[in-house]
Write a structure and sequence with these properties.
Helices cover about 45% and strands about 15% of the residues. This is HTH hxlR-type domain-containing protein.
Length: about 130
């Protein structure tokens, strides 16, 4: 990819795009962002909405998204505490990208092979002992 100049500063667009991709890389980040683009979610709602994600992984992914300024976390002083997650105005800028992905899926989604939807750790099947 070409290097571009911005005044006296030369910009390596390949490196810049790598930084952009890293914001959403990870097994669950795009799915989390997709859901939060629809509405505000509580932690438990997100966990139920994403089959196969562990509590630990959801927490880690949300923390990374929050650190990158893509998700905001609001804690309400209630008993028990209520925590809500929503995308930030900066993340709303990804809306056209999500719309483009939706349009692409509507056109080509049926041509994509179906993969099992289960993710994460699978419980081992317990064999019953027969006597």
């Amino acid at each position: 990819m070409k290097k571009q100049t911005n005044g006296d500063v030369e910009i390596n667009m390949h490196e810049e795009m790598r930084r952009a991709f890293s914001l959403l890389s990870g097994k669950w980040k795009l799915e989390i962002m997709w859901l939060l683009n629809q509405r505000v979610y509580r932690f438990g709602e997100l966990r139920k909405a994403i089959p196969g994600i562990t509590q630990h992984m959801l927490t880690a992914q949300l923390r990374e998204l929050e650190a990158d300024g893509l998700v905001s976390r609001t804690v309400f002083a209630e008993v028990p505490p209520r925590v809500e997650y929503e995308i930030t105005p900066k993340a709303r800028g990804l809306g056209p990208t999500m719309e483009a992905l939706t349009a692409w899926w509507h056109e080509y989604g049926r041509t994509v092979p179906v993969k099992p939807t289960s993710r994460g750790r699978q419980a081992k099947a317990v064999k019953s002992k027969q006597k």
